[in-house]
Protein backbone atom coordinates (compact mmCIF):
# COMPACT_ATOMS: atom_id res chain seq x y z
CA UNK A 1 0.00 0.00 0.00
CA UNK A 2 1.48 3.42 -0.92
CA UNK A 3 2.64 5.53 1.98
CA UNK A 4 0.23 8.35 1.18
CA UNK A 5 -2.84 6.10 1.03
CA UNK A 6 -4.30 7.84 4.06
CA UNK A 7 -4.32 11.13 2.17
CA UNK A 8 -6.46 9.55 -0.51
CA UNK A 9 -9.16 8.55 1.97
CA UNK A 10 -12.49 10.29 1.57
CA UNK A 11 -13.61 13.00 3.94
CA UNK A 12 -17.07 11.45 4.15
CA UNK A 13 -17.94 9.64 7.33
CA UNK A 14 -21.13 8.15 8.73
CA UNK A 15 -21.86 7.78 12.42
CA UNK A 16 -24.56 5.35 13.58
CA UNK A 17 -25.68 6.02 17.15
CA UNK A 18 -25.86 9.48 18.66
CA UNK A 19 -25.74 8.87 22.38
CA UNK A 20 -23.23 10.79 24.48
CA UNK A 21 -20.26 9.14 22.77
CA UNK A 22 -21.62 8.84 19.23
CA UNK A 23 -22.63 12.52 19.27
CA UNK A 24 -19.15 13.53 20.44
CA UNK A 25 -17.61 11.49 17.61
CA UNK A 26 -19.94 13.01 14.99
CA UNK A 27 -19.36 16.54 16.29
CA UNK A 28 -15.62 16.00 16.25
CA UNK A 29 -15.76 15.01 12.58
CA UNK A 30 -17.99 17.98 11.73
CA UNK A 31 -15.63 20.38 13.48
CA UNK A 32 -12.73 18.96 11.46
CA UNK A 33 -14.52 19.55 8.19
CA UNK A 34 -15.74 16.05 7.38
CA UNK A 35 -18.99 15.60 5.47
CA UNK A 36 -20.77 13.78 8.27
CA UNK A 37 -23.89 11.67 7.88
CA UNK A 38 -25.64 10.58 11.04
CA UNK A 39 -28.41 8.23 12.08
CA UNK A 40 -29.95 7.53 15.44
CA UNK A 41 -32.86 5.30 16.43
CA UNK A 42 -34.46 8.27 18.19
CA UNK A 43 -34.31 10.80 15.39
CA UNK A 44 -34.57 13.91 17.60
CA UNK A 45 -31.06 13.25 18.94
CA UNK A 46 -29.66 14.22 15.53
CA UNK A 47 -31.14 17.73 15.55
CA UNK A 48 -28.26 19.69 17.09
CA UNK A 49 -25.78 17.90 14.81
CA UNK A 50 -27.86 18.77 11.76
CA UNK A 51 -27.83 22.40 12.91
CA UNK A 52 -24.03 22.11 13.03
CA UNK A 53 -23.90 20.82 9.44
CA UNK A 54 -24.48 17.05 9.58
CA UNK A 55 -26.85 15.22 7.26
CA UNK A 56 -29.34 13.01 9.08
CA UNK A 57 -31.01 10.07 7.37
CA UNK A 58 -34.32 8.38 8.13
CA UNK A 59 -32.82 4.89 8.11
CA UNK A 60 -29.51 3.40 9.16
CA UNK A 61 -29.12 1.80 5.73
CA UNK A 62 -29.30 5.23 4.03
CA UNK A 63 -26.61 6.51 6.38
CA UNK A 64 -24.37 3.53 5.58
CA UNK A 65 -24.84 4.10 1.87
CA UNK A 66 -23.66 7.72 2.21
CA UNK A 67 -19.99 7.13 3.19
CA UNK A 68 -17.21 4.60 2.66
CA UNK A 69 -16.40 4.67 6.39
CA UNK A 70 -19.14 3.91 8.94
CA UNK A 71 -18.52 4.41 12.66
CA UNK A 72 -20.93 2.47 14.85
CA UNK A 73 -21.32 3.65 18.45
CA UNK A 74 -24.31 2.07 20.16
CA UNK A 75 -25.15 1.04 23.69
CA UNK A 76 -24.05 -2.60 23.49
CA UNK A 77 -23.52 -5.60 21.25
CA UNK A 78 -27.23 -6.46 21.16
CA UNK A 79 -27.92 -3.02 19.66
CA UNK A 80 -25.06 -3.54 17.16
CA UNK A 81 -26.56 -6.89 16.07
CA UNK A 82 -29.94 -5.25 15.57
CA UNK A 83 -28.56 -2.36 13.53
CA UNK A 84 -26.24 -4.57 11.44
CA UNK A 85 -29.19 -6.76 10.51
CA UNK A 86 -31.08 -3.64 9.37
CA UNK A 87 -28.20 -2.30 7.24
CA UNK A 88 -27.19 -5.63 5.69
CA UNK A 89 -28.14 -4.71 2.08
CA UNK A 90 -26.03 -1.52 2.25
CA UNK A 91 -22.72 -2.71 3.71
CA UNK A 92 -21.02 -4.22 0.64
CA UNK A 93 -17.76 -2.36 -0.06
CA UNK A 94 -17.91 -0.35 3.18
CA UNK A 95 -15.50 -0.20 6.10
CA UNK A 96 -17.42 -0.74 9.33
CA UNK A 97 -15.70 0.65 12.43
CA UNK A 98 -17.50 -0.54 15.52
CA UNK A 99 -16.46 1.32 18.68
CA UNK A 100 -19.27 -0.05 20.83
CA UNK A 101 -18.07 -1.72 24.04
CA UNK A 102 -18.12 -5.51 23.82
CA UNK A 103 -16.07 -8.67 24.07
CA UNK A 104 -13.33 -10.04 21.83
CA UNK A 105 -15.67 -12.86 20.80
CA UNK A 106 -18.32 -10.37 19.70
CA UNK A 107 -15.74 -8.43 17.69
CA UNK A 108 -14.63 -11.61 15.92
CA UNK A 109 -18.24 -12.54 15.17
CA UNK A 110 -18.87 -9.05 13.73
CA UNK A 111 -15.76 -9.39 11.59
CA UNK A 112 -17.01 -12.70 10.17
CA UNK A 113 -20.42 -11.15 9.52
CA UNK A 114 -18.87 -8.16 7.73
CA UNK A 115 -16.66 -10.37 5.57
CA UNK A 116 -19.61 -12.57 4.64
CA UNK A 117 -21.45 -9.45 3.48
CA UNK A 118 -18.60 -7.94 1.46
CA UNK A 119 -17.55 -5.31 4.03
CA UNK A 120 -14.31 -4.78 5.95
CA UNK A 121 -14.42 -4.60 9.73
CA UNK A 122 -12.43 -2.75 12.32
CA UNK A 123 -13.18 -3.07 15.99
CA UNK A 124 -12.37 -0.17 18.28
CA UNK A 125 -12.74 0.43 21.97
CA UNK A 126 -12.91 3.77 23.74
CA UNK A 127 -10.99 4.67 26.89
CA UNK A 128 -11.99 8.19 27.85
CA UNK A 129 -14.94 10.56 28.15
CA UNK A 130 -17.04 12.14 25.39
CA UNK A 131 -15.91 15.77 25.99
CA UNK A 132 -12.32 14.74 25.24
CA UNK A 133 -12.97 12.97 21.93
CA UNK A 134 -10.53 14.43 19.42
CA UNK A 135 -7.79 14.89 22.05
CA UNK A 136 -4.98 12.66 23.29
CA UNK A 137 -6.97 12.07 26.47
CA UNK A 138 -9.14 9.48 24.74
CA UNK A 139 -7.46 6.21 23.76
CA UNK A 140 -8.82 4.20 20.85
CA UNK A 141 -7.29 0.74 20.42
CA UNK A 142 -8.26 -0.72 17.02
CA UNK A 143 -7.94 -4.17 15.50
CA UNK A 144 -9.15 -5.96 12.40
CA UNK A 145 -8.61 -5.45 8.67
CA UNK A 146 -5.13 -3.93 8.33
CA UNK A 147 -5.72 -2.54 4.84
CA UNK A 148 -8.87 -0.75 6.01
CA UNK A 149 -7.04 0.68 9.02
CA UNK A 150 -4.21 1.98 6.85
CA UNK A 151 -6.57 3.42 4.24
CA UNK A 152 -8.58 5.30 6.88
CA UNK A 153 -5.87 5.89 9.45
CA UNK A 154 -5.92 9.67 9.15
CA UNK A 155 -9.70 9.78 9.71
CA UNK A 156 -9.45 7.40 12.66
CA UNK A 157 -6.61 9.40 14.21
CA UNK A 158 -8.93 12.43 14.35
CA UNK A 159 -10.70 10.62 17.22
CA UNK A 160 -7.88 10.74 19.75
CA UNK A 161 -4.86 8.66 20.65
CA UNK A 162 -5.12 5.72 18.25
CA UNK A 163 -3.22 2.41 18.29
CA UNK A 164 -3.58 -0.55 15.93
CA UNK A 165 -3.26 -3.92 17.66
CA UNK A 166 -3.38 -6.37 14.76
CA UNK A 167 -5.52 -8.25 12.26
CA UNK A 168 -7.38 -10.34 14.84
CA UNK A 169 -10.53 -8.22 15.33
CA UNK A 170 -10.73 -9.26 19.00
CA UNK A 171 -7.45 -7.63 20.03
CA UNK A 172 -8.86 -4.14 20.68
CA UNK A 173 -11.38 -5.67 23.09
CA UNK A 174 -8.62 -7.69 24.76
CA UNK A 175 -6.64 -4.49 25.27
CA UNK A 176 -9.70 -2.65 26.59
CA UNK A 177 -10.69 -5.43 29.02
CA UNK A 178 -7.14 -5.78 30.33
CA UNK A 179 -6.63 -2.03 30.78
CA UNK A 180 -9.99 -1.54 32.46
CA UNK A 181 -9.55 -4.56 34.74
CA UNK A 182 -6.11 -3.36 35.79
CA UNK A 183 -7.41 0.13 36.53
CA UNK A 184 -10.18 -1.32 38.72
CA UNK A 185 -7.75 -3.55 40.62
CA UNK A 186 -5.44 -0.60 41.21
CA UNK A 187 -8.24 1.73 42.26
CA UNK A 188 -9.89 -0.67 44.71
CA UNK A 189 -6.44 -1.13 46.30
CA UNK A 190 -6.09 2.64 46.47
CA UNK A 191 -9.48 3.05 48.18
CA UNK A 192 -8.58 0.35 50.68
CA UNK A 193 -5.35 2.09 51.53
CA UNK A 194 -7.28 5.33 52.10
CA UNK A 195 -9.26 3.49 54.79
CA UNK A 196 -5.97 2.74 56.47
CA UNK A 197 -4.60 6.24 56.03
CA UNK A 198 -7.72 7.88 57.39
CA UNK A 199 -7.91 5.44 60.32
CA UNK A 200 -4.40 6.62 61.24
CA UNK A 201 -5.54 10.27 61.11
CA UNK A 202 -3.47 11.10 58.03
CA UNK A 203 -4.96 13.42 55.38
CA UNK A 204 -6.12 11.31 52.43
CA UNK A 205 -5.54 14.12 49.89
CA UNK A 206 -1.98 14.73 51.04
CA UNK A 207 -1.26 11.01 50.98
CA UNK A 208 -2.75 10.74 47.47
CA UNK A 209 -0.51 13.53 46.21
CA UNK A 210 2.55 11.84 47.66
CA UNK A 211 1.61 8.48 46.13
CA UNK A 212 0.93 10.13 42.76
CA UNK A 213 4.46 11.55 42.99
CA UNK A 214 5.85 8.03 43.19
CA UNK A 215 4.03 6.85 40.04
CA UNK A 216 6.87 7.80 37.66
CA UNK A 217 8.81 4.85 39.12
CA UNK A 218 6.16 2.39 37.95
CA UNK A 219 6.85 2.17 34.19
CA UNK A 220 10.36 0.82 34.77
CA UNK A 221 9.14 -1.63 37.41
CA UNK A 222 6.26 -2.84 35.24
CA UNK A 223 8.58 -3.14 32.26
CA UNK A 224 10.96 -5.42 34.13
CA UNK A 225 8.09 -7.45 35.59
CA UNK A 226 6.58 -7.94 32.13
CA UNK A 227 9.96 -9.12 30.83
CA UNK A 228 10.30 -11.52 33.77
CA UNK A 229 6.85 -13.04 33.12
CA UNK A 230 7.55 -13.34 29.39
CA UNK A 231 10.92 -15.05 29.90
CA UNK A 232 9.81 -16.90 33.06
CA UNK A 233 13.10 -15.81 34.57
CA UNK A 234 12.40 -14.15 37.90
CA UNK A 235 14.97 -11.96 39.59
CA UNK A 236 14.40 -10.60 43.09
CA UNK A 237 12.20 -7.64 42.06
CA UNK A 238 10.99 -5.72 45.13
CA UNK A 239 13.40 -7.97 47.07
CA UNK A 240 13.31 -11.73 47.59
CA UNK A 241 9.99 -13.36 48.51
CA UNK A 242 11.55 -14.56 51.77
CA UNK A 243 11.97 -10.94 52.86
CA UNK A 244 8.71 -9.70 51.35
CA UNK A 245 6.66 -12.39 53.10
CA UNK A 246 7.87 -11.14 56.48
CA UNK A 247 6.80 -7.60 55.53
CA UNK A 248 3.37 -8.90 54.50
CA UNK A 249 2.79 -10.13 58.03
CA UNK A 250 3.36 -6.57 59.26
CA UNK A 251 1.05 -5.10 56.61
CA UNK A 252 -1.72 -7.53 57.50
CA UNK A 253 -1.29 -6.96 61.23
CA UNK A 254 -1.37 -3.17 60.71
CA UNK A 255 -4.65 -3.37 58.77
CA UNK A 256 -6.24 -5.67 61.27
CA UNK A 257 -5.19 -3.54 64.24
CA UNK A 258 -7.21 -0.71 62.69
CA UNK A 259 -10.18 -2.86 61.70
CA UNK A 260 -9.40 -2.48 57.99
CA UNK A 261 -10.23 -5.53 55.85
CA UNK A 262 -7.15 -7.53 54.79
CA UNK A 263 -8.55 -10.12 52.37
CA UNK A 264 -6.37 -9.19 49.39
CA UNK A 265 -3.23 -8.81 51.49
CA UNK A 266 -3.84 -12.30 52.90
CA UNK A 267 -4.26 -13.58 49.35
CA UNK A 268 -0.89 -12.07 48.37
CA UNK A 269 0.73 -13.57 51.47
CA UNK A 270 -0.74 -17.00 50.68
CA UNK A 271 0.70 -16.80 47.14
CA UNK A 272 4.10 -15.85 48.55
CA UNK A 273 3.98 -18.74 51.01
CA UNK A 274 3.19 -21.17 48.20
CA UNK A 275 6.01 -19.90 46.03
CA UNK A 276 8.45 -20.08 48.94
CA UNK A 277 7.25 -23.61 49.78
CA UNK A 278 7.96 -24.55 46.15
CA UNK A 279 11.61 -23.56 46.75
CA UNK A 280 11.58 -20.11 45.11
CA UNK A 281 12.00 -17.82 48.11
CA UNK A 282 14.98 -16.17 46.43
CA UNK A 283 12.81 -14.91 43.55
CA UNK A 284 10.85 -11.68 43.44
CA UNK A 285 7.26 -10.50 43.33
CA UNK A 286 6.83 -11.15 39.59
CA UNK A 287 7.36 -14.89 40.22
CA UNK A 288 3.89 -15.00 41.85
CA UNK A 289 2.62 -15.15 38.28
CA UNK A 290 3.54 -18.83 38.38
CA UNK A 291 1.14 -19.58 41.24
CA UNK A 292 -1.82 -17.46 40.09
CA UNK A 293 -4.62 -19.80 39.11
CA UNK A 294 -6.33 -20.12 35.75
CA UNK A 295 -5.43 -18.81 32.32
CA UNK A 296 -3.99 -20.80 29.46
CA UNK A 297 -1.12 -20.29 27.09
CA UNK A 298 -2.33 -18.68 23.84
P1 LIG B 1 -25.78 6.33 25.37
O1 LIG B 1 -25.62 7.78 25.54
O2 LIG B 1 -26.64 5.56 26.32
O3 LIG B 1 -26.30 6.06 23.88
C1 LIG B 1 -26.65 4.76 23.47
C2 LIG B 1 -26.93 4.79 21.99
O4 LIG B 1 -27.27 3.47 21.56
C3 LIG B 1 -28.08 5.70 21.59
O5 LIG B 1 -27.79 6.27 20.35
C4 LIG B 1 -29.23 4.71 21.49
O6 LIG B 1 -30.26 5.15 20.66
C5 LIG B 1 -28.51 3.55 20.86
N1 LIG B 1 -29.21 2.29 21.00
C6 LIG B 1 -29.40 1.55 22.11
N2 LIG B 1 -30.08 0.43 21.81
C7 LIG B 1 -30.32 0.46 20.49
C8 LIG B 1 -30.95 -0.42 19.59
N3 LIG B 1 -31.48 -1.59 20.01
N4 LIG B 1 -31.03 -0.08 18.29
C9 LIG B 1 -30.49 1.09 17.85
N5 LIG B 1 -29.86 1.98 18.66
C10 LIG B 1 -29.78 1.65 19.95
O7 LIG B 1 -24.35 5.59 25.39
P2 LIG B 1 -22.93 6.24 25.01
O8 LIG B 1 -22.38 6.90 26.22
O9 LIG B 1 -23.03 6.99 23.75
O10 LIG B 1 -22.08 4.92 24.79
C11 LIG B 1 -21.98 4.31 23.52
C12 LIG B 1 -20.87 3.26 23.59
O11 LIG B 1 -19.65 3.92 23.92
C13 LIG B 1 -21.12 2.20 24.66
O12 LIG B 1 -20.73 0.94 24.18
C14 LIG B 1 -20.23 2.67 25.80
O13 LIG B 1 -19.81 1.59 26.64
C15 LIG B 1 -19.06 3.28 25.03
N6 LIG B 1 -18.32 4.25 25.86
C16 LIG B 1 -18.98 5.30 26.40
C17 LIG B 1 -18.27 6.20 27.20
C18 LIG B 1 -18.95 7.37 27.86
O14 LIG B 1 -18.34 7.99 28.74
N7 LIG B 1 -20.17 7.74 27.47
C19 LIG B 1 -16.89 6.00 27.43
C20 LIG B 1 -16.25 4.92 26.83
C21 LIG B 1 -16.99 4.03 26.04
P3 LIG B 1 -31.51 5.99 21.26
O15 LIG B 1 -31.05 7.43 21.33
O16 LIG B 1 -32.59 5.75 20.28
O17 LIG B 1 -31.81 5.39 22.62
From TrEMBL:
UniProt keyword annotation of Membrane present: no
Keyword Oxidoreductase: yes
Domain of life: Bacteria
Start and end residues of each 6-phosphogluconate dehydrogenase NADP-binding domain: 13-163
Protein source organism: Streptomyces cavernicola
Family the entry assigns: Belongs to the HIBADH-related family.
Stored InterPro entries: 6PGD_dom2 (IPR013328), 6PGDH_NADP-bd (IPR006115), HIBADH-related (IPR015815), HIBADH-related_NP60_sf (IPR051265), NAD(P)-bd_dom_sf (IPR036291), RedAm-like_C (IPR048666)
Transmembrane segments: none
Pfam families in UniProt: NAD_binding_2, RedAm-like_C
Segments forming domain NADPH-dependent reductive aminase-like C-terminal: 168-292
Protein name (database record): NAD(P)-binding domain-containing protein
Amino acid sequence: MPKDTADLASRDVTVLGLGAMGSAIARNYLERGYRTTVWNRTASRAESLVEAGATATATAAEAVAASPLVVICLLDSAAVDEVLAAVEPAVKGKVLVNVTSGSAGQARANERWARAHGAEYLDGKIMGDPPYVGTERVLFPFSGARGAFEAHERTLRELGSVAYHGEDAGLAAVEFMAQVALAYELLIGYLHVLKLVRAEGVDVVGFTERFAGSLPAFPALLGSMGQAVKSRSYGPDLGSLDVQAALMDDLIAHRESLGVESVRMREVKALMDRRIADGHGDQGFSSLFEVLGGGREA
